[in-house]
Amino acid sequence: MNILRQLINQFKLQWRGKNHVVGWNMTAEAVIAFFLSQRKTVLTFYGYSGMGYEDEKGMLEIARKVLSGYSPETALINIGVTRVGIGAIYPLAKSMGFTTTGIVTSLAFEHPAGVAGISESVDHICFVADQQWGGTLPHSDQLSPTSRAMVACSDILVGIGGGGIAEAEMLAGKAQGKPVYFYPADKNHAYAISYAKRMGLPPPESFDSGNPDLFKK
Q: How many domains does the chain have?
């Protein structure tokens, strides 16, 4: 990681003054300890981040219905700190009185969006020391530190669409006996087509992701 870029983005985030950073390069165990100290049920949302949703309004309607089943006094809402896509739930959760949290790899400071891509509606952010964005480690079925922290800290996992990392974490949550709920949703079509073109890939054959059958009781 570019240390100078990391330091600059840390300064920018602190200067913005909208989020409490719990730690910049935390271990999964330190993140788990922080969440336990909150003494609340952790409801984690999974879904598309950078690509966004074809029907964001529909996604937020699903989220509102899910959130209405919990109390801000006993539950906190956790996502991956992003401002767009699934991160659009942050302002909604805040408007309903919930405390919000985010767990993300320290590689987030290498993302082109930088601090601008981090939601201002995340109360507490845990940056995890990790060499990848999440998912399983290379040539292994073990989760990366970020994903391991995400699953371990979550009491209830709710997916609204989502890609490979989200699926890996939800499957891990299911394997641990945690409640997992999945709602199919399309990623933003135009963005997905544009992304495939930029990467030299064929146009996507489908705009949904995740297999709802994997998460049936």
A: 1
